[in-house]
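Reading a protein record of the kind used here takes only a little practice. Think of the row as the fold of the chain written in a discrete alphabet. A record is reproduced here so that you can trace the correspondence yourselves:
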Amino acid sequence: MEENLIKTCLHDRHVKLGAQMSPFGGFDMPIQYKGITEEHNAVRTNVGVFDVSHMGEVRVIGPDAEKYVNHIFVNDVTGAPDGQIFYGMMCKEDGGTVDDLLVYKVNDQEFFLVINASNIAKDFAWIEKNAYGYNVVVTNESDYYGEVAIQGPKAEETVINVLGIPVEDIKFYTFKTFDIDGEKVIVSRTGYTGEDGFEIYGSHDFTRKVWDKLMEAGVQPCGLGCRDTLRFEVGLPLYGDELAEDITPIEASLSMFVKLDKPEFIGKEALAKQKAEGVKRRIVGLELEGNAIPRHGYAVEVNGEQVGEITTGYRSISTGKSVAMAMINKPYDKLGTEVEVRIRKKTFPAKVVKKRFYDKSYKK
């Protein structure tokens, strides 16, 4: 299996830097360089850069582009200004999540979809299949694009001073296209870390140049290890943990991204029913007493009976607390509810808290 792993355009750079490499979503990806804690803290206090070239990119072009994107996406892109970005999900008819993604509006007839690495083939097949009857062309551009994410309070000055890209006018959840070295480069400002940050999409050659400039300037390279600890602390979901084909956005406590007042979209009926009638389980935050560390798959119990399961758990680097996100059955999902987490043969007391364990510091 190891031989079949896909390498990103920066793979040789990671190996040269001595990164710890590991399979992720079919790719051979860096997990850490100096260490997860050091990389995590660099992003929280200064700046760090991630290779996110494993993410997938799909372009939708045609007269029905807006109508079609609204058909497959739970958020509402109607009449949005060019350059706007939306977060949301694609769902099956039963409301289960095909993937969570970012939708970039280039113009009324062109949208750029950024999807998860582990789902590229599945997502593209689903997007193509559901385009039937719409006047659009969908193209999988995942093999063309490399992508780096520059994250942290000093992200803006780093992109301006080191890369010479004027990003000060790019607002949160918007993007611009630049002509650089004879190619079109997309620069967005979203961030999966809870900090200010930019994503730069370009050809493989361009991506290597960007990475090399950042390394020369002493920017801390960061692996997927701290990408997970950072997103988790601010309550952001990871597909496969907090979202899945058998977990709906409503169960994931992400109903704010599901716009039920727009015309039909795939899964609307099932999600509307869940919203109206309530769900039997949902994702919540947990805080454990003491130092025990909860991990994915550990049971959550009340009086010896399992009422849920940990989806992501860590000793939070930024707060020093043992915290987790967990899928919990009602009525044990209410804030302040006392539960226990089973770690091997012992149980540890915990209580339900908000799933944002650390405050985001995005630049509005």
In short: The mean pLDDT is 96. The chain is about 20% helix and 35% strand. The radius of gyration is 21 Å.
